[in-house]
């Protein structure tokens, strides 16, 4: 296999901001299973493993860490290295979150054109 065909993993992925419903569900999950909430929110393997170790030894700091992780800012979400492969595939390097969704005004123009 030549060097030009080898695909490397990007350094980070820009994950979109959670919807309010998803964020609420992840916060509830953070109370009961903090490492799983971090994993589902796109945490790195190191974050998930460290949170699991902290959760086994000290429950309250693990819950707080998980809630802070789920509620992190858009800038911090842009520096994610998720452990879930599906998040790497969905959000390619350099791709903006929600770039596959048409802007709202363009979407309504398309509806109006179909109706006319």
From TrEMBL:
Principal localisation: membrane
InterPro entries: PMP3
Transmembrane regions: 21-40, 52-71
Subcellular location: Membrane
Top-level taxon: Eukaryota
GO cellular component: membrane
Record keywords: Membrane, Transmembrane, Transmembrane helix
Family note: Belongs to the UPF0057 (PMP3) family.
Protein name as catalogued: Uncharacterized protein
Species: Massarina eburnea CBS 473.64
């Amino acid at each position: 296999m030549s060097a030009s065909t080898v695909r490397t993993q990007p350094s980070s992925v820009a994950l979109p901001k959670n919807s309010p419903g998803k964020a609420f569900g992840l916060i509830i999950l953070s109370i009961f299973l903090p490492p799983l909430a971090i994993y589902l929110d796109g945490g790195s393997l190191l974050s998930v493993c460290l949170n699991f170790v902290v959760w086994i030894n000290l429950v309250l700091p693990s819950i707080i860490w998980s809630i802070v992780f789920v509620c992190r800012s858009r800038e911090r979400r842009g520096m994610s290295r998720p452990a879930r492969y599906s998040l790497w595939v969905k959000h390619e390097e350099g791709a903006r979150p929600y770039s596959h969704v048409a802007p709202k005004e363009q979407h309504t123009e398309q509806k109006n054109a179909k109706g006319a």
